[in-house]
Structures are given as structure tokens and as C-alpha cells.
Amino acid sequence: MKTEAVEEFVAQQEFLPFARPSITDREKAAVLAVLDSGWLTTGPRVQEFEEAFASFVGTPYALAVNSATAALHLALEAIGVGPGDEVIVPTWTFAASAEVIAHCGATPVLVDIEPRSLNASDDAVIAALTPRTRAYIAVHFAGLPTDLEAVATELEQRGISIIEDAAHAFPSRIGPQRRSVGTIGRAGAYSFYATKTITTGEGGMLVTADPAVAERARVMSLHGISRDAWKRYTEAGSWYYEIEAAGFKYNLTDLAAALGLVQLSRANELHEKRRWLSRRYGELLHKSVIRDVIELPQGIEDEAHAWHLFVLRLQLERLGCDRGAVIEALRERGIGTSVHFIPLHLHPYYREHFGTTPSRYPVASREYERVISLPLWPDMTDSDVQRVVSELESVVGPAIL
User: Fold this and answer.
1) Residue 229 has what pLDDT?
2) Are residues 394 and 262 in the same domain?
3) pLDDT given for residue 370 in this prediction
4) Among 223, 250, 266, where does a domain finish?
5) Whole-number pLDDT of residue 240
6) Which residue from 259, 303, 254, 257 is spatially nearest to 279, judged by alpha carbons?
7) 182 plus 298 within the same structural domain
8) Half-sphere exposure of 241 (CA within 13 A, CB side)
9) In whole angstroms, what is the distance from residue 50 CA to residue 57 CA?
10) What is residue 134's three-state secondary structure?
11) Are both 131 and 178 inside the same structural domain?
12) Among 240, 266, 292, where does a domain finish?
């Protein structure tokens, strides 16, 4: 229960949200220019954004869409995933990574995670392979790239495609060749949601080096109409079009792309600020009075980490409260937090349709109970980080048994 002193202190503090986009006058001007142009939906800005993004990550093909969910769905559809197929996906992920499998009529096969990184366990992925396995959706959780080398050879030998869910991992680059995460598998999906390193509000990008995947995804992204269907409303276009397949409405708008182009030009700056904030969290928490009852995330000094999230783990056995109580106490003190993620196997849909139980995913089930994501966004200040750590100490410190 809050004391009067705490209530008075909190009343004087602005609420510190869990996430907030970094928007400058450049983004505002770019969006206004599109409004003035008279062309708002998919058009020249989208095309420019695709080309710039492809160049940035080093891929032959990039398709701008309205979400990473759309990108994942298009990738699976383009490689022919359908009824009777199985697609492996870690249980530790957001709804999108697995629901797109169901949208294709295939079966999502959930696998457990590795306890340190919280990315999928390589052993669990290999153990889940069957003659029906068509693809593996590799999730780069929180921005820490999952090591695909250990499973890639095995999957390639069996003709199984890797689709990378890189929603958290832009602009991570890994390996001696500094390859962009998302360009290692057959296709990759990026997110430009409001909380991501760069944002278009809502939006995503599908990348691939496979021309057949790129062409199929482009056609399917706009109602299955033949390539560059948007041009039919331009001077260079034609009224005539042909529907080649029963497609989707997944296109990105020029308004969003204009925002994305400016954000892309700031990507390294925004990433470096996230890295700095994460290192600062690490420094403060490492010497904190609560250091013995928390676990810091892996990769604080890893340049490959995108730092979409800063995920702490509480040693609940040493605390006299649960994770929910910590979150609520921080909220009362003006600090926004979140939980990433409620594992898929705990949700009703997966329990009812696939018979998932906590015992089948012991690592994810255990770690879920104790994770908490702290505020992390580029315009946070050092004093913001100090405030979060101080309030966490105030909440957790007295609870230590």
C-alpha cells in the first residue's frame, strides 16, 4: 500500500511509459509533403522505401507491407505452406509468429526455448522435425539474434525453409560478414510498429533473395493483382488488370513510407541510443542493492543486439512477492513496464486446438513467471534510467527475504 509520501512524490513525476517513438521535425515534414502531393496510398514513396531498405540490409528484394504479420504470412504462402504441413515456431513469441501458420491451413509446432537467451532451443527444433515439417520460423527475441548456424545445415538437407521473424532485431548484423538478421533464411520479416527501432506507425517489410518468393509475395500483397497494380491510377498505368490469385490487402501507404524513409536514415543513431541505454541499465543494476535477486539480459556488450527490449528476470524464490505485484507497484510509482511474452502454449487457442500444456515447455513456463521488460526508447535520458532503477530498488529491495 502506498504511503502519503510516495503518493505525493509520484504526483510530481510524469508517467514514464514503457515505449515511445522518436519523432522529429524531419518525419513531420516528410508526412506533410505526402499529404500535399495528393498521393497517399501505395506509390512512389513506398517504392523508394523498399529500395532504400533493401540496400540498407543487403538483400535483392524488399516488399513493404502493413505489418510484420503480413510479411510472415506472405513468406509462408509464397513457399507453398498449406494444409497437412507443419511449421516449427518457438512458444516464446508474440501471436503473429504462429497465427500466420494457421492462416495457411498448416499446423504450428511449438518448441521450448533456451534458458539464457530465451530464443528457441536448437535441440528442441531438431527434435520437432517430422516428414511433414515445411518451415521453421526463427524468432530473434528482444533483438538478440538466434544462432541459425547450428540448425541451418540440418534443415537445408531436409528441404526445410527458414523464415526469420526479425520483428525485434532491426538493425542487427551478425557473423564475420556482418549479415543483416532477416537475410539469412529464405525470407525475413521486419516490423515497423510504433515501439520498434524504426517506425511507420504500423508497417513491415518482407525481404528475400529468392526471386520467386519476392514475385509471389508482391502479387499476393495486393489482392493477387498483377505486378505494380497501384500504377493503374498513375499517368503510366492502365485501367486493365488481371487477378492471378486470391490475394490479400497487405500494402503499405506512402504516408507510412515517408515516415519510414526518415526513420531509416536515423536507424544507426536510434540503435546506438538503445545500446547506450541498455548498457546504462546494466551498469546501474550490476552495482545495485538488488543485484542478487535479478538477472540481467544476455548480450549487454553484444553489438549485434538490437535492444528492442530490456528484459529482467526476478529471482522469485528470494522475493516475498510475485512478478505481478512488482509491475503494479512500479505503475503506481509512475513507471510503465510490460511482459514479453505470455508463451503461446498457455493461451486458450493452443491449449484447445493442440493440447499444449506447461509441462511440455518447462523452460518457457518457468521463465515466463519471472520476466519483466523495463522502459526502453531512444529519447529516454540518463535520469530516466536512474529513476527506473531507483524505483525498482524501492519496490524489490524491501521484498527480499
Assistant:
1) 63
2) no
3) 98
4) 266
5) 81
6) 303
7) no
8) 18
9) 11
10) strand
11) yes
12) 266
pLDDT score at 61: 98
Q: Which residues of the chain have pLDDT under 70?
A: 1-12, 227-237
Residue 241 has a pLDDT of: 84
CB contact set of 207 (below 8 Å; sequence gap of 6+): 53, 54, 57, 59, 61, 62, 63, 182, 183, 187, 188, 189, 190
Q: Which class for 14: exposed (0-12), middle (13-18), buried (19 or more C-beta within 10 A)? A: exposed
Q: What are the backbone angles phi and psi of residue 239, rounded to the nearest 5°?
A: -70, -20
Same domain, 246 and 185: yes
> What residues are labeled active site?
196
**What is residue 176's predicted lDDT score, i.e. its pLDDT?**
87
What is the total count of domains within the chain? 2
DSSP reduced 3-state for 86: strand
Alpha helical stretches, state H, 15-94: 25-37, 44-57, 68-78
Range of the domain at 70: 25-266
Residues 154 and 180 occupy one common structural domain? yes
Same domain, 51 and 152: yes
The overall pTM is greater than 0.85:
yes
Place of cell 539464457: 116
The CATH number that applies at residue 175 is 3.40.640.10
CA distance linking residue 47 with residue 64, whole number of Å:
8
pLDDT of 238 reads: 74
Alpha-carbon gap, residue 389 to 190, rounded angstroms: 31
Q: Are residues 42 and 8 in the same domain?
A: no
The string over 166-199, giving b where at least 16 C-beta atoms fall within 10 Å of a residue's C-beta and e elsewhere, is bbbbbbbbbeeeebbbbbbbbbbbbbbbebbbbb
Fill in the DSSP letter of residue 6: H
Q: Say which amino acid occupies 52.
A: A
Write the CATH number for 381.
Answer: 3.90.1150.10
Report pLDDT for 319: 93
Task: Give the single-character DSSP code of 237.
Answer: -
Residues present in the chain in total: 401
